[in-house]
């Protein structure tokens, strides 16, 4: 009677490998020059490291087989302890790899700096001297993307257009929590942070529709925070701009304040007109009327402070992009939407000891102490809490 053939259980995993056929390998097959250079960096680094990893694995298996207990022909030398030639090989090869990786990292860190303007369209074409880059201002919100084209005077939601082989200058910020702007086919990810302006220079080299998304968890609607990046010809891009500008929709500060409230699965749409300097107001946290821009407060600080009167600036610097005062649920840590009890027994809107009262619901970016008050809202002593020292305020 023949014995049944036994197969290793690990073979049962082989059919699962077929599922990998549906994987999107856009990171290793990008369509933008910056992403292509980043891909090359990954490949070169991996190959250099494999120069050490593969020989080590092979020699480990060889030594285990060569010096097994059953091999009596193998040399047995228990007194052996040193070989100069072997030491040179063991240390020289990894050292050479480390030097090569260090040189590549140094060059790539500067060459692929997202703040650095482009100097080429692709590996074969340098950047023409007369080319005009396309400026796109990116705002990451809860949980959608706003794109502003300042030169074209329009804005879009969850969709982005750019002509092929034209440099793109992205200016990136966020309305509330930190996020990450990422188009794998175009370039690496760059963080979007409230009150800050980060940059990314990139170019798309092939027409098509590519996926963009947030690569940094930012709350309950994070998984739907995606957008489409459309690379088009210059003619198609101009036609899209003309079609969008033909509409009568306007995106001003009032529209933005309503739009920034947390929401999910926002549809793609365009606005024919966008208010001037809206992005600058978003970065400086002063979209709402009556608020002081962060850059203005920094200018006051640079000039030595505004003296005791600066306490009036407190309310102008209270900022909450999640509209908690209007009852807009955020699904964030302090506003649980899952029905479970919060970790803290206090209500999210409950006044905390030693904290300024939450007036007008502005709890988010509380920059009140910059206005020269203590945590109870009282004027701080001179030289403390943000008030300029006496010698800087001779008038006082």
TrEMBL record:
Example GO molecular function: oxidoreductase activity, acting on diphenols and related substances as donors, oxygen as acceptor
Domain of life per record: Bacteria
A GO biological-process term: ATP synthesis coupled electron transport
Domain Cytochrome oxidase subunit II transmembrane region profile: residue ranges: 19-116
InterPro entries for the chain: CcO_II (IPR045187), CcO_II-like_C (IPR002429), COX_ARM (IPR010514), Cupredoxin (IPR008972), CuRO_UO_II (IPR034227), Cyt_c_oxidase_su2_TM_dom (IPR011759), Cyt_c_oxidase_su2_TM_sf (IPR036257), Cyt_o_ubiquinol_oxidase_su2 (IPR006333)
Listed SUPFAM superfamilies: Cupredoxins, Cytochrome c oxidase subunit II-like, transmembrane region
Cell inner membrane is among the record's keywords: no
Subcellular location as annotated: Cell membrane
Keywords attached to this entry: Cell membrane, Electron transport, Lipoprotein, Membrane, Oxidoreductase, Palmitate, Respiratory chain, Signal, Transmembrane, Transmembrane helix, Transport
Protein topology in the membrane: Multi-pass membrane protein
Record has Hydrolase as a keyword: no
Listed GO CC annotations: plasma membrane
One matching Pfam family: COX_ARM
CDD domains (UniProt xref): CuRO_UO_II (cd04212)
Cytochrome oxidase subunit II copper A binding domain: residues covered: 131-243
Family to which the UniProt record says this protein belongs: Belongs to the cytochrome c oxidase subunit 2 family.
Annotated PANTHER family: CYTOCHROME BO(3) UBIQUINOL OXIDASE SUBUNIT 2, CYTOCHROME C OXIDASE, SUBUNIT II
NCBIfam families recorded: CyoA (TIGR01433)
This protein's name: Ubiquinol oxidase polypeptide II
Native species: Xaviernesmea oryzae
Highest classification ranks of the organism: Bacteria, Pseudomonadati, Pseudomonadota, Alphaproteobacteria, Hyphomicrobiales
